[in-house]
Amino acid sequence: MGSILDFSEICKYNLSVDNNKINWFPGHMTKSLHGLDDYIKKCNLILYVLDARCPKSCLNPEFEQFLKRKPVLFILNKSDLALPDDFKGIALNSKQSNSADKIIPHIKRLFPTKTIIQAMVIGVPNSGKSTLINNFAKTAKAKTEDRPGVTRQPQWVQARLSPSAKLTLYFLDTPGILWPNLEDQHIARNLALIGSIRDDILDITQLVQTRVDLSDFARSRGHLLPGGQLDLERAAKAYLTDFRAGKFGRVNLDQGQP
Prior knowledge:
The protein has a six-stranded mixed sheet, with helices on one face. Strands 1-2 form a two-stranded antiparallel sheet. The chain contains eight helices and eight strands; from the N terminus they run E-E-H-E-H-E-E-H-E-H-E-E-H-H-H-H. It is α/β, with parallel strands linked by helices. It has helices spanning 27-39, 64-67, 104-110, 129-137, 185-193, 204-209, 214-221, 232-244, and strands at 14-15, 24-25, 45-51, 72-77, 90-91, 116-122, 155-158, 168-173. The two termini are 38 Å apart. It has two domains: 7-173, 3-Layer(aba) Sandwich (Rossmann fold), CATH 3.40.50; 203-255, no CATH class.
């Protein structure tokens, strides 16, 4: 699997910057979306990984075509960072050891007689798909980083289960995929805040300003340029880092600011 695209490749993107509209749909997402149509034929199940901080915003309309073809389990990942939501799914923190094990009973209920299951894992970028798969595998089989676009090629990974489970699970790690036109800019901002959209194509100062008074935040952190002017860019980066790590408390972005 390769790294994310260089900024020089942005010319290949469906990237809207007019009127500060947020939109990001790299060329590899188009290719990946078409590839899912072939892979789903080999799978019994879909694990749809959503960021629990904004699960509704993470629902990709391009995935609807696949949800009609296979059983689906919705996984509310990063639930340790989220306020309660009425979205029905399996809440967990995939960075916590063995937390993925709670999904196994749900799989068994869907397939009570099958002993070998192949599941395709889908979701928007940076939702934690690869981390979830590594949790099942008990080791770092799928490459993970805290940025979108790291997974670029599908990869099969086998889960490590106890013999008593009497089940063999294979997971297909797929690239995070958005949709071509993020018409709803509230959803687009939510995706940007959780790191599903690359920071380097965003006006992060404007993005953070939707959450806090960035000037006040910069002063509180002492982010100053030579001469005493506020360093808003540095402050915005600091805010996003801490926000994504949950240092400002649990949130539910779908319902607005807590």
